[in-house]
Amino acid sequence: MRNLFPLLFAAALLPLGMPAGAKTSLLDYVGQCVPFARAASGIAIYGDAWTWWTQAAGRYQRGDIPRPGAVIVFERTSRLPLGHVAVISRVVDSHVVMVTHANWSRQNGERGHAEQDVTLTDVSPRGDWSAVKVWYRDMDALGSTIYPTYGFVYGSTLDHGSRAQPAPELTGRDPDYVGALIDSYVR
Question: Is the pTM above the cut of 0.85?
Answer without folding.
Answer: no
